[in-house]
Hints:
- Helix content is 28%, strand content 23%.
- It is an alpha/beta fold.
- It has a domain at 486-586: GMP Synthetase, Chain A, domain 3, CATH 3.30.300.30.
- α12 (319-328) crosses α13 (353-362).
- It starts with a strand and ends in a 14-residue tail after the last helix.
- It binds adenosine-5'-triphosphate (ATP) and magnesium ion.
Amino acid sequence: MKATTPSSTRWPTISKDIAALPVRPNLADYDEACAAFTWDEARGGLSGLPGGGVNIAHEAVDRHGAGALADREALRFVRADGTTRSLSYAELAEETGRFASVLRGLGVQRGERVFSLVGRMPALYVAVLGTLKHAAVFCPLFSAFGPEPVRQRLQLGGGRVLITTRALYRRKVAPIRAELPDLRHVLLIDADDEPEPGTLDLAALLDDAPPYGEIAATGPEDMALLHFTSGTTGKPKGAIHVHDAVTAHYATGRFALDLHPDDVYWCTADPGWVTGTSYGIIAPLVHGVTTIVDEEEMDADRWYRILAEQRVTVWYTAPTALRMLMKAGAERAGGHDLSALRFVASVGEPLNPEVVVWGQEAFGLPVHDNWWQTETGGIMISNYPAMDIRPGSMGRPLPGIEAAIVARDETGAPLLRDGEIVLVTDPDAMGELALRPGWPSMFRGYLNEEERYRKCFVGGWYLTGDLARRDDDGYYWFVGRGDDVIKSSGHLIGPFEVESSLMEHDAVAEAGVIGVPDPVAGEVVKAFVELKPGYEASDALRLEIIGFARKRLGAAVAPRLLDFTTALPKTRSGKILRRLLKARELGLPEGDTSTLEVGR
Ligand code: ATP
Ligand code: MG
């Protein structure tokens, strides 16, 4: 089957001029940086534990708290009313030590799991790093989860300790507590005078905690974090990460996010997802920069205000948020002084070329897409400040990362010839994106799913489950998830391509595309479209949008069917749930919906 030609290549390249950038990028020459890179050399940017070994919390906090950065703001929390409170590196070192001491006092053992179900407030950040100091394993849950997803994950992860608030405990944990025999301690960060049965008052425990002393000695391969995947393709999997992952967080923070010592950095992801931990906590702290944490939910005016008032220099966000800003109109950015902003990056979903280019209108900067997964623990493929952007492309692999496109057989399995995996060498030919194992933040297993983990590795490659193509110059282009790809009249169609084309129509704010069975074509393309404010759904508009897509994509690839919707189903982390669109369309069971955003 042939794949369709990427329409996104129609967008002109955005050229970079290093001399015109406000700071010299850490990665000034891509090929040189790749040739010079080794993971051992990257470890040189870290300090290691004084007695040997490596601990994420030491690299992120204690070495700065006891050094030249002691008084620098580590975390700056923006409250609902726009006021802020900050923790310096020295304060963060002290508070995380006390949290580690509380865990020791409770008898929590090395490797035991500490969970959180908390919004983005200081206690959460202290708990993550304090847990790592005590050599226990941290697992953050998204605070908007209902009781069922909370139960599922606590059970699967064998949670020993849970940090939460009174309200969340009452609503989401108390009803299922009896089903969680492993859960020994629930620590409430806002306990009041009326004790909640079966819980402890964290503030009181912290007040009484003696100093922790030296960080627990952890080795590079000791388990540090448990992260559940987003559940876009099915039941979430628990990915295991180790302390050596910090080497990758450091290196990718340097190259892909271009962190410099004076940066004010904002990652909008919630720590309930891997991005919010790897790049909302660990990477920026390891680099000693100041990190902004917004305690509130997304709102266009609020976000522009934060970018301006907090003088954010580097911003890491997601396509769904950018599309929402775009829907609100670039003029909303007007009146905000975004002059401090020098780099904008995005992850989590394919980033439509339209959005990359729109960044220039709203922020005066293009958006830099990068790609990774919960399993990879850190950014793998990226656009860099010094490298030309091809809108619609995820960029090129990080120094130290070897990527390839693996050929697939008719069933979608990797193609083997004489027992060897076959790599696609033709530029622009599609296959499964694969990575050569061995980078430090690679997951070390799916918790309790050994077989599933093993199946991810074939012929010396880690198979990502995503389909992509690589162009002549080594830029990678996302086609779709293996499961989302549409087979229509002998063509393989990636939904991203079609969605991006639809978004080029003035009326379209967002689109989700699936294949529906068809007796002649096998499948035909069906689009679900959300309109921008000021546009009314009508048959005339439906035909107009289909015609528009046909002109761009050709009749074989353009949607044959189109429905208007006001709420595309999305995960809590903002990814379009195409499998749910499809199940609903075909009247099939909805499958695991534990990460579905409420009301979608
Ligand atoms: P699950 O594995 O439970 O189905 P998920 O794959 O969405 O959920 P994550 O690990 O959070 O869970 O997301 C990683 C996936 O998100 C990638 O495999 C890819 O499909 C998609 N993704 C992330 N970044 C990008 C990007 N820049 N372009 C295209 N797709 C991306
Ligand atoms: Mg996945």
